[in-house]
Amino acid sequence: MKYLVSVYTEGNNAKAALLEKEKESVKVLRVLSLSVSAPGDAGSNNFMLDLETPAAGNDLSFDELENIAEGESESGDASDISRLNSILSGIKLSQVQFMPVVGEPTANYHFSERPADANKKKLLQAIISDIYDSKGVKVTPDMLGYTEFDEKTILSVFLEGEIPAVTLINRLANFNKRRYLKIPAIKPAELSLAYYAAKNGNFFPEDNTLIIYIGRETSKLIFLEGNKLKHIGATLDVGVSNLHTYDVYFSKILLEMENGGVSKLDNIILCGEDRSENLILSFYGTFPEANVSEMKFEDIDISELSEENQRDLALYSIPISAGVEYFDELDKKHKGVNILPRYIQENQKFLQFGWHSYALMPLLFGATFFFTFEILSNMQKINELDMEIARLNQKQIQNQALIEEITPLQNRINSFDATQSILDSATVDAGIWSDNLSSISDFMERRRNFWISKFENPNPGDIIVYGFSLSRSVLTEFARNYPAAVVKSINSETIREKTAFSYIINLKLNEKQSDVQ
Protein backbone atom coordinates (compact mmCIF):
# COMPACT_ATOMS: atom_id res chain seq x y z
CA MET A 1 0.00 0.00 0.00
CA LYS A 2 1.43 3.36 -1.13
CA TYR A 3 0.11 6.88 -0.54
CA LEU A 4 0.91 9.83 -2.77
CA VAL A 5 -0.14 13.47 -2.43
CA SER A 6 0.03 15.13 -5.85
CA VAL A 7 0.14 18.95 -5.64
CA TYR A 8 -0.36 21.32 -8.59
CA THR A 9 -0.13 25.10 -8.32
CA GLU A 10 -1.32 27.62 -10.87
CA GLY A 11 -0.99 31.30 -10.04
CA ASN A 12 -2.99 31.90 -6.88
CA ASN A 13 -4.59 28.45 -6.86
CA ALA A 14 -3.38 25.04 -5.73
CA LYS A 15 -4.99 21.65 -6.10
CA ALA A 16 -4.05 18.48 -4.24
CA ALA A 17 -5.15 14.86 -4.52
CA LEU A 18 -4.40 12.00 -2.14
CA LEU A 19 -4.00 8.74 -4.06
CA GLU A 20 -3.48 5.21 -2.82
CA LYS A 21 -1.82 2.41 -4.80
CA GLU A 22 -2.79 -1.09 -3.69
CA LYS A 23 -1.71 -3.97 -5.90
CA GLU A 24 -2.94 -3.11 -9.41
CA SER A 25 -5.56 -0.50 -8.51
CA VAL A 26 -5.32 3.24 -7.89
CA LYS A 27 -7.78 4.92 -5.54
CA VAL A 28 -8.40 8.65 -5.08
CA LEU A 29 -9.05 9.10 -1.36
CA ARG A 30 -9.35 12.88 -1.05
CA VAL A 31 -9.11 16.04 -3.13
CA LEU A 32 -8.60 19.61 -2.02
CA SER A 33 -8.47 23.07 -3.62
CA LEU A 34 -6.60 26.00 -2.02
CA SER A 35 -6.19 29.66 -2.88
CA VAL A 36 -2.63 30.91 -2.63
CA SER A 37 -1.58 34.55 -2.26
CA ALA A 38 0.19 35.90 -5.31
CA PRO A 39 4.01 35.84 -5.11
CA GLY A 40 5.44 39.02 -3.69
CA ASP A 41 2.30 40.05 -1.81
CA ALA A 42 2.45 40.83 1.86
CA GLY A 43 0.55 37.68 2.54
CA SER A 44 2.41 35.54 0.03
CA ASN A 45 2.88 32.78 2.61
CA ASN A 46 -0.81 32.62 3.40
CA PHE A 47 -2.89 29.66 2.15
CA MET A 48 -6.67 29.91 2.29
CA LEU A 49 -9.18 27.17 1.64
CA ASP A 50 -11.29 27.46 -1.50
CA LEU A 51 -14.78 27.27 -0.02
CA GLU A 52 -16.30 26.56 -3.43
CA THR A 53 -14.82 23.05 -3.43
CA PRO A 54 -15.97 20.82 -0.55
CA ALA A 55 -13.54 18.14 0.59
CA ALA A 56 -14.34 14.44 0.64
CA GLY A 57 -15.47 12.73 3.83
CA ASN A 58 -16.56 14.08 7.19
CA ASP A 59 -13.02 14.56 8.41
CA LEU A 60 -12.34 16.84 5.45
CA SER A 61 -15.46 18.98 5.67
CA PHE A 62 -14.47 22.61 5.42
CA ASP A 63 -17.96 24.12 5.34
CA GLU A 64 -17.41 25.37 8.86
CA LEU A 65 -14.69 27.67 7.56
CA GLU A 66 -17.38 30.08 6.45
CA ASN A 67 -17.78 30.92 10.12
CA ILE A 68 -14.15 31.85 10.72
CA ALA A 69 -13.92 34.91 12.93
CA GLU A 70 -13.35 38.16 11.10
CA GLY A 71 -10.51 39.03 13.47
CA GLU A 72 -8.39 36.11 12.33
CA SER A 73 -5.09 37.29 10.86
CA GLU A 74 -4.65 36.87 7.10
CA SER A 75 -1.13 35.72 7.79
CA GLY A 76 -2.31 32.86 9.96
CA ASP A 77 0.07 30.38 8.33
CA ALA A 78 -0.43 27.65 10.91
CA SER A 79 -4.20 27.74 10.49
CA ASP A 80 -4.02 27.65 6.69
CA ILE A 81 -1.46 24.87 6.53
CA SER A 82 -3.47 22.89 9.09
CA ARG A 83 -6.33 22.91 6.59
CA LEU A 84 -4.03 21.57 3.92
CA ASN A 85 -2.69 19.07 6.44
CA SER A 86 -6.20 17.72 6.95
CA ILE A 87 -5.94 15.88 3.62
CA LEU A 88 -3.61 13.52 5.53
CA SER A 89 -6.08 12.85 8.33
CA GLY A 90 -5.59 9.35 9.75
CA ILE A 91 -2.45 8.62 7.69
CA LYS A 92 1.13 8.61 9.02
CA LEU A 93 3.46 11.04 7.28
CA SER A 94 6.12 8.33 7.06
CA GLN A 95 3.81 6.39 4.71
CA VAL A 96 3.19 9.29 2.29
CA GLN A 97 5.19 10.69 -0.62
CA PHE A 98 4.56 14.17 -2.04
CA MET A 99 4.89 15.00 -5.72
CA PRO A 100 4.85 18.58 -7.06
CA VAL A 101 3.32 19.05 -10.51
CA VAL A 102 4.51 22.08 -12.49
CA GLY A 103 3.40 23.97 -15.57
CA GLU A 104 4.45 27.17 -17.31
CA PRO A 105 6.23 29.40 -16.45
CA THR A 106 8.08 27.10 -14.03
CA ALA A 107 8.23 24.28 -16.60
CA ASN A 108 9.53 25.05 -20.08
CA TYR A 109 9.46 22.73 -23.09
CA HIS A 110 12.13 22.41 -25.77
CA PHE A 111 12.29 20.18 -28.86
CA SER A 112 15.74 19.04 -30.04
CA GLU A 113 16.05 17.50 -33.47
CA ARG A 114 18.40 14.69 -32.57
CA PRO A 115 17.95 10.96 -31.99
CA ALA A 116 18.22 9.44 -28.56
CA ASP A 117 21.75 8.60 -27.40
CA ALA A 118 22.62 5.67 -25.15
CA ASN A 119 25.13 7.94 -23.42
CA LYS A 120 22.73 9.91 -21.20
CA LYS A 121 25.39 12.30 -19.94
CA LYS A 122 26.40 13.20 -23.49
CA LEU A 123 22.76 13.61 -24.54
CA LEU A 124 22.02 15.90 -21.58
CA GLN A 125 24.96 18.14 -22.44
CA ALA A 126 23.79 18.33 -26.07
CA ILE A 127 20.26 19.30 -24.99
CA ILE A 128 21.62 21.94 -22.60
CA SER A 129 23.66 23.42 -25.45
CA ASP A 130 20.58 23.46 -27.70
CA ILE A 131 18.53 25.27 -25.06
CA TYR A 132 21.23 27.88 -24.53
CA ASP A 133 21.68 28.45 -28.27
CA SER A 134 17.95 28.79 -29.01
CA LYS A 135 16.63 30.41 -25.82
CA GLY A 136 19.72 31.88 -24.18
CA VAL A 137 18.94 30.04 -20.93
CA LYS A 138 21.59 28.21 -18.92
CA VAL A 139 20.22 24.96 -17.51
CA THR A 140 21.89 22.56 -15.09
CA PRO A 141 21.45 18.78 -15.61
CA ASP A 142 19.52 18.34 -12.34
CA MET A 143 16.85 20.82 -13.54
CA LEU A 144 16.31 19.01 -16.84
CA GLY A 145 14.34 15.96 -17.93
CA TYR A 146 13.69 14.54 -21.39
CA THR A 147 11.77 11.89 -23.32
CA GLU A 148 11.66 10.67 -26.93
CA PHE A 149 9.07 12.62 -28.91
CA ASP A 150 9.64 10.57 -32.06
CA GLU A 151 12.54 8.76 -33.70
CA LYS A 152 14.29 11.99 -34.63
CA THR A 153 13.21 14.39 -31.90
CA ILE A 154 13.82 14.70 -28.16
CA LEU A 155 11.31 16.59 -26.00
CA SER A 156 12.97 18.11 -22.95
CA VAL A 157 11.52 19.90 -19.93
CA PHE A 158 13.58 22.26 -17.77
CA LEU A 159 12.69 24.16 -14.62
CA GLU A 160 13.27 27.83 -13.94
CA GLY A 161 12.86 29.86 -10.78
CA GLU A 162 11.14 28.90 -7.57
CA ILE A 163 8.80 25.89 -7.59
CA PRO A 164 5.63 26.98 -5.73
CA ALA A 165 4.41 23.41 -5.11
CA VAL A 166 7.74 22.54 -3.44
CA THR A 167 7.48 25.63 -1.24
CA LEU A 168 3.98 24.57 -0.22
CA ILE A 169 5.14 21.05 0.63
CA ASN A 170 8.10 22.36 2.64
CA ARG A 171 5.79 24.57 4.69
CA LEU A 172 3.60 21.55 5.34
CA ALA A 173 6.72 19.73 6.58
CA ASN A 174 7.51 22.60 8.97
CA PHE A 175 3.95 22.51 10.24
CA ASN A 176 4.44 18.83 11.13
CA LYS A 177 7.84 19.57 12.73
CA ARG A 178 9.66 17.70 9.97
CA ARG A 179 12.80 18.82 8.22
CA TYR A 180 11.39 17.61 4.92
CA LEU A 181 8.69 15.44 3.35
CA LYS A 182 9.50 12.72 0.83
CA ILE A 183 9.52 14.10 -2.72
CA PRO A 184 10.41 11.37 -5.26
CA ALA A 185 9.93 13.43 -8.46
CA ILE A 186 8.49 16.55 -10.07
CA LYS A 187 6.09 15.99 -12.99
CA PRO A 188 5.25 18.35 -15.90
CA ALA A 189 1.49 18.96 -15.97
CA GLU A 190 1.03 18.93 -19.76
CA LEU A 191 2.81 15.60 -20.25
CA SER A 192 0.88 13.95 -17.42
CA LEU A 193 -2.46 15.07 -18.90
CA ALA A 194 -1.42 13.84 -22.33
CA TYR A 195 -0.34 10.46 -20.93
CA TYR A 196 -3.56 9.85 -19.01
CA ALA A 197 -5.82 10.90 -21.91
CA ALA A 198 -3.87 8.69 -24.33
CA LYS A 199 -3.88 5.77 -21.91
CA ASN A 200 -7.66 5.75 -21.42
CA GLY A 201 -8.88 7.10 -24.75
CA ASN A 202 -9.90 4.64 -27.45
CA PHE A 203 -8.56 6.77 -30.29
CA PHE A 204 -7.96 5.66 -33.83
CA PRO A 205 -4.37 6.13 -35.06
CA GLU A 206 -5.47 8.94 -37.41
CA ASP A 207 -7.59 10.77 -34.77
CA ASN A 208 -6.56 14.26 -33.69
CA THR A 209 -7.49 15.01 -30.11
CA LEU A 210 -7.37 18.29 -28.19
CA ILE A 211 -7.06 18.30 -24.41
CA ILE A 212 -8.01 21.71 -23.07
CA TYR A 213 -7.42 22.47 -19.41
CA ILE A 214 -9.10 25.68 -18.22
CA GLY A 215 -7.63 27.04 -15.03
CA ARG A 216 -8.34 30.05 -12.87
CA GLU A 217 -5.96 32.37 -14.70
CA THR A 218 -4.41 30.27 -17.49
CA SER A 219 -5.40 27.50 -19.88
CA LYS A 220 -3.47 24.71 -21.59
CA LEU A 221 -3.84 23.23 -25.08
CA ILE A 222 -2.42 19.76 -25.71
CA PHE A 223 -2.80 17.90 -29.02
CA LEU A 224 -2.63 14.14 -29.57
CA GLU A 225 -2.39 12.17 -32.78
CA GLY A 226 -3.77 8.74 -32.07
CA ASN A 227 -2.37 7.85 -28.67
CA LYS A 228 0.82 9.91 -29.07
CA LEU A 229 1.63 13.50 -28.18
CA LYS A 230 1.44 15.72 -31.27
CA HIS A 231 1.88 19.29 -30.05
CA ILE A 232 1.96 21.33 -26.82
CA GLY A 233 0.43 24.74 -27.32
CA ALA A 234 1.60 27.86 -25.54
CA THR A 235 -0.12 28.45 -22.21
CA LEU A 236 -3.01 30.90 -22.63
CA ASP A 237 -3.31 33.84 -20.24
CA VAL A 238 -7.07 33.35 -19.96
CA GLY A 239 -9.09 31.38 -17.44
CA VAL A 240 -12.39 31.44 -15.60
CA SER A 241 -11.32 34.54 -13.66
CA ASN A 242 -10.60 36.72 -16.72
CA LEU A 243 -12.57 35.12 -19.56
CA HIS A 244 -15.24 37.27 -21.25
CA THR A 245 -16.02 35.21 -24.32
CA TYR A 246 -15.22 31.69 -25.51
CA ASP A 247 -14.20 33.04 -28.90
CA VAL A 248 -10.70 33.67 -27.57
CA TYR A 249 -10.26 29.92 -27.11
CA PHE A 250 -11.28 29.15 -30.66
CA SER A 251 -8.86 31.65 -32.18
CA LYS A 252 -6.01 30.33 -30.02
CA ILE A 253 -6.89 26.73 -30.83
CA LEU A 254 -6.89 27.41 -34.57
CA LEU A 255 -3.51 29.17 -34.26
CA GLU A 256 -1.98 26.25 -32.34
CA MET A 257 -3.44 23.77 -34.82
CA GLU A 258 -1.61 25.61 -37.57
CA ASN A 259 1.62 25.70 -35.52
CA GLY A 260 1.39 22.00 -34.69
CA GLY A 261 0.36 20.80 -38.12
CA VAL A 262 -3.08 19.64 -36.97
CA SER A 263 -5.57 19.72 -39.85
CA LYS A 264 -8.76 18.82 -37.96
CA LEU A 265 -10.08 17.83 -34.54
CA ASP A 266 -11.84 14.53 -33.97
CA ASN A 267 -12.01 14.65 -30.16
CA ILE A 268 -12.03 17.47 -27.64
CA ILE A 269 -11.53 16.61 -23.94
CA LEU A 270 -12.39 19.27 -21.37
CA CYS A 271 -10.96 19.44 -17.85
CA GLY A 272 -10.22 22.02 -15.21
CA GLU A 273 -12.38 24.79 -13.80
CA ASP A 274 -14.93 25.16 -16.63
CA ARG A 275 -16.79 22.22 -18.17
CA SER A 276 -20.13 23.93 -18.47
CA GLU A 277 -22.81 23.10 -21.03
CA ASN A 278 -22.35 26.53 -22.66
CA LEU A 279 -18.67 25.75 -23.25
CA ILE A 280 -19.50 22.33 -24.73
CA LEU A 281 -22.13 23.84 -27.05
CA SER A 282 -19.70 26.55 -28.14
CA PHE A 283 -17.14 23.89 -29.13
CA TYR A 284 -19.81 21.96 -31.03
CA GLY A 285 -20.62 25.14 -32.90
CA THR A 286 -17.01 25.74 -33.92
CA PHE A 287 -15.94 22.12 -34.41
CA PRO A 288 -19.15 20.31 -35.38
CA GLU A 289 -17.35 17.11 -36.38
CA ALA A 290 -15.49 16.74 -33.08
CA ASN A 291 -16.62 14.60 -30.17
CA VAL A 292 -16.64 16.95 -27.15
CA SER A 293 -16.51 15.30 -23.68
CA GLU A 294 -15.33 15.83 -20.14
CA MET A 295 -12.26 13.94 -18.96
CA LYS A 296 -13.34 10.76 -17.18
CA PHE A 297 -11.52 8.63 -14.64
CA GLU A 298 -13.24 5.30 -15.18
CA ASP A 299 -10.16 3.18 -14.38
CA ILE A 300 -9.73 4.77 -10.91
CA ASP A 301 -11.59 3.95 -7.71
CA ILE A 302 -13.30 7.15 -6.51
CA SER A 303 -15.75 5.54 -4.08
CA GLU A 304 -14.17 7.34 -1.10
CA LEU A 305 -15.06 10.77 -2.51
CA SER A 306 -18.28 12.65 -1.92
CA GLU A 307 -20.86 12.72 -4.73
CA GLU A 308 -20.08 16.37 -5.46
CA ASN A 309 -16.35 15.72 -5.74
CA GLN A 310 -17.03 12.71 -7.95
CA ARG A 311 -19.03 14.94 -10.31
CA ASP A 312 -16.30 17.60 -10.31
CA LEU A 313 -13.33 15.23 -10.47
CA ALA A 314 -12.15 16.73 -13.78
CA LEU A 315 -11.28 19.82 -11.73
CA TYR A 316 -8.36 17.78 -10.32
CA SER A 317 -7.30 16.27 -13.65
CA ILE A 318 -3.69 17.42 -13.42
CA PRO A 319 -2.75 16.12 -9.92
CA ILE A 320 -4.64 12.85 -10.52
CA SER A 321 -3.09 12.29 -13.95
CA ALA A 322 0.40 12.98 -12.59
CA GLY A 323 -0.19 10.52 -9.74
CA VAL A 324 -1.40 7.76 -12.08
CA GLU A 325 1.57 8.33 -14.39
CA TYR A 326 3.99 8.10 -11.46
CA PHE A 327 2.47 4.81 -10.24
CA ASP A 328 2.69 3.39 -13.77
CA GLU A 329 6.36 4.36 -13.87
CA LEU A 330 6.96 2.48 -10.62
CA ASP A 331 5.29 -0.57 -12.18
CA LYS A 332 7.55 -0.24 -15.28
CA LYS A 333 4.49 0.34 -17.51
CA HIS A 334 5.63 3.77 -18.68
CA LYS A 335 8.72 5.94 -18.78
CA GLY A 336 7.94 9.61 -18.38
CA VAL A 337 9.75 12.78 -17.44
CA ASN A 338 10.74 13.08 -13.79
CA ILE A 339 12.75 16.04 -12.58
CA LEU A 340 14.22 16.28 -9.10
CA PRO A 341 16.60 19.23 -8.55
CA ARG A 342 19.78 18.61 -6.62
CA TYR A 343 18.82 20.88 -3.72
CA ILE A 344 15.72 18.77 -3.08
CA GLN A 345 17.79 15.57 -3.20
CA GLU A 346 20.33 17.02 -0.77
CA ASN A 347 17.60 18.26 1.56
CA GLN A 348 16.16 14.74 1.76
CA LYS A 349 19.45 13.03 2.61
CA PHE A 350 19.70 11.59 6.09
CA LEU A 351 23.23 13.03 6.44
CA GLN A 352 24.08 16.29 4.74
CA PHE A 353 27.76 17.08 4.16
CA GLY A 354 29.52 20.21 3.01
CA TRP A 355 33.11 20.29 1.71
CA HIS A 356 34.45 20.67 5.26
CA SER A 357 32.46 17.61 6.32
CA TYR A 358 34.04 15.56 3.56
CA ALA A 359 37.46 16.79 4.74
CA LEU A 360 36.69 15.43 8.19
CA MET A 361 35.51 12.06 6.89
CA PRO A 362 39.04 10.47 7.06
CA LEU A 363 39.21 11.51 10.71
CA LEU A 364 35.77 10.05 11.25
CA PHE A 365 36.82 6.73 9.74
CA GLY A 366 40.08 6.82 11.72
CA ALA A 367 38.23 7.45 14.97
CA THR A 368 35.78 4.68 14.12
CA PHE A 369 38.65 2.25 13.48
CA PHE A 370 40.42 3.29 16.70
CA PHE A 371 37.38 2.91 18.92
CA THR A 372 36.44 -0.37 17.22
CA PHE A 373 39.95 -1.71 17.84
CA GLU A 374 39.84 -0.58 21.47
CA ILE A 375 36.44 -2.17 22.01
CA LEU A 376 37.58 -5.48 20.49
CA SER A 377 40.78 -5.42 22.60
CA ASN A 378 38.83 -4.75 25.75
CA MET A 379 36.38 -7.51 24.87
CA GLN A 380 39.33 -9.91 24.52
CA LYS A 381 40.66 -8.87 27.93
CA ILE A 382 37.21 -9.30 29.43
CA ASN A 383 37.02 -12.81 27.99
CA GLU A 384 40.45 -13.66 29.44
CA LEU A 385 39.42 -12.33 32.86
CA ASP A 386 36.19 -14.31 32.69
CA MET A 387 38.21 -17.46 32.01
CA GLU A 388 40.54 -16.69 34.95
CA ILE A 389 37.56 -16.11 37.24
CA ALA A 390 36.11 -19.46 36.16
CA ARG A 391 39.47 -21.17 36.85
CA LEU A 392 39.73 -19.61 40.32
CA ASN A 393 36.16 -20.60 41.13
CA GLN A 394 37.00 -24.19 40.18
CA LYS A 395 40.13 -24.01 42.36
CA GLN A 396 38.05 -22.70 45.25
CA ILE A 397 35.70 -25.66 44.90
CA GLN A 398 38.67 -28.08 44.96
CA ASN A 399 40.17 -26.37 48.01
CA GLN A 400 36.84 -26.57 49.80
CA ALA A 401 36.77 -30.33 49.10
CA LEU A 402 40.29 -30.67 50.58
CA ILE A 403 39.25 -28.75 53.69
CA GLU A 404 36.35 -31.11 54.16
CA GLU A 405 38.80 -34.06 53.95
CA ILE A 406 41.29 -32.46 56.37
CA THR A 407 38.70 -31.71 59.08
CA PRO A 408 38.36 -35.37 60.30
CA LEU A 409 42.15 -35.75 60.34
CA GLN A 410 42.44 -32.58 62.37
CA ASN A 411 39.92 -33.93 64.85
CA ARG A 412 41.97 -37.12 65.18
CA ILE A 413 45.12 -35.07 65.73
CA ASN A 414 43.38 -33.08 68.44
CA SER A 415 42.29 -36.35 70.07
CA PHE A 416 45.90 -37.56 70.04
CA ASP A 417 46.99 -34.36 71.74
CA ALA A 418 44.40 -34.92 74.46
CA THR A 419 45.67 -38.50 74.93
CA GLN A 420 49.22 -37.25 75.14
CA SER A 421 48.15 -34.73 77.77
CA ILE A 422 46.57 -37.49 79.83
CA LEU A 423 49.75 -39.56 79.66
CA ASP A 424 51.85 -36.57 80.67
CA SER A 425 49.68 -35.93 83.70
CA ALA A 426 49.11 -39.61 84.66
CA THR A 427 51.91 -39.70 87.18
CA VAL A 428 54.15 -37.24 88.89
CA ASP A 429 57.10 -39.48 88.51
CA ALA A 430 58.24 -39.21 84.89
CA GLY A 431 60.56 -42.15 85.42
CA ILE A 432 57.63 -44.47 86.08
CA TRP A 433 56.06 -43.39 82.82
CA SER A 434 59.32 -43.94 80.98
CA ASP A 435 59.84 -47.39 82.42
CA ASN A 436 56.30 -48.55 81.83
CA LEU A 437 56.14 -47.16 78.30
CA SER A 438 59.43 -48.82 77.45
CA SER A 439 58.08 -52.06 78.92
CA ILE A 440 54.87 -51.78 76.92
CA SER A 441 56.83 -50.93 73.78
CA ASP A 442 59.04 -53.97 74.17
CA PHE A 443 56.05 -56.21 74.73
CA MET A 444 54.25 -54.86 71.62
CA GLU A 445 57.42 -55.37 69.57
CA ARG A 446 57.50 -59.01 70.52
CA ARG A 447 53.77 -59.52 70.15
CA ARG A 448 52.79 -58.08 66.78
CA ASN A 449 49.14 -58.93 67.36
CA PHE A 450 48.62 -56.47 70.21
CA TRP A 451 47.66 -52.77 69.75
CA ILE A 452 46.76 -49.87 72.03
CA SER A 453 44.26 -47.31 70.73
CA LYS A 454 43.62 -45.09 73.74
CA PHE A 455 44.82 -44.14 77.27
CA GLU A 456 42.73 -42.56 80.03
CA ASN A 457 43.85 -41.21 83.41
CA PRO A 458 40.73 -41.16 85.63
CA ASN A 459 42.74 -41.03 88.84
CA PRO A 460 46.35 -40.32 89.70
CA GLY A 461 48.37 -43.53 89.31
CA ASP A 462 45.65 -45.22 87.28
CA ILE A 463 45.96 -45.65 83.52
CA ILE A 464 43.12 -47.25 81.63
CA VAL A 465 44.33 -48.80 78.39
CA TYR A 466 41.96 -49.39 75.42
CA GLY A 467 43.03 -51.49 72.46
CA PHE A 468 42.73 -54.57 70.27
CA SER A 469 44.40 -57.98 70.02
CA LEU A 470 44.15 -60.97 67.76
CA SER A 471 44.87 -63.36 70.65
CA ARG A 472 43.12 -63.61 74.00
CA SER A 473 46.15 -65.21 75.63
CA VAL A 474 48.28 -62.23 74.74
CA LEU A 475 45.99 -60.06 76.82
CA THR A 476 46.39 -62.39 79.81
CA GLU A 477 50.15 -62.37 79.30
CA PHE A 478 50.21 -58.56 79.14
CA ALA A 479 48.15 -58.22 82.31
CA ARG A 480 50.43 -60.63 84.21
CA ASN A 481 53.40 -58.33 83.73
CA TYR A 482 51.60 -55.72 85.84
CA PRO A 483 50.76 -57.26 89.22
CA ALA A 484 48.29 -54.52 90.06
CA ALA A 485 46.63 -54.57 86.65
CA VAL A 486 42.87 -55.23 86.37
CA VAL A 487 41.30 -56.59 83.18
CA LYS A 488 37.99 -54.76 83.06
CA SER A 489 36.55 -56.23 79.84
CA ILE A 490 37.37 -58.38 76.84
CA ASN A 491 34.95 -58.43 73.87
CA SER A 492 35.14 -60.31 70.60
CA GLU A 493 34.77 -58.16 67.39
CA THR A 494 35.21 -58.70 63.66
CA ILE A 495 37.69 -56.39 62.00
CA ARG A 496 38.32 -56.81 58.24
CA GLU A 497 36.84 -60.29 58.25
CA LYS A 498 39.08 -61.41 61.15
CA THR A 499 38.16 -62.15 64.75
CA ALA A 500 39.75 -59.69 67.21
CA PHE A 501 39.34 -58.82 70.86
CA SER A 502 38.80 -55.35 72.17
CA TYR A 503 39.95 -54.88 75.72
CA ILE A 504 40.01 -52.42 78.61
CA ILE A 505 42.82 -52.88 81.19
CA ASN A 506 43.43 -50.69 84.27
CA LEU A 507 47.18 -50.46 84.99
CA LYS A 508 48.36 -49.48 88.46
CA LEU A 509 51.53 -47.40 88.10
CA ASN A 510 52.14 -46.53 91.74
CA GLU A 511 55.22 -48.67 91.77
CA LYS A 512 58.02 -49.07 89.24
CA GLN A 513 57.32 -52.10 87.17
CA SER A 514 59.91 -54.50 86.02
CA ASP A 515 60.56 -55.01 82.35
CA VAL A 516 58.06 -57.16 80.58
CA GLN A 517 59.63 -60.55 79.84
TrEMBL record:
TM region(s), chain numbering: 355-376
Keywords: Membrane, Transmembrane, Transmembrane helix
Keyword Transmembrane helix: yes
Identification of the protein by name: Fimbrial assembly family protein
Organism: Melioribacter roseus (strain DSM 23840 / JCM 17771 / VKM B-2668 / P3M-2)
Source lineage: Bacteria, Pseudomonadati, Ignavibacteriota, Ignavibacteria, Ignavibacteriales
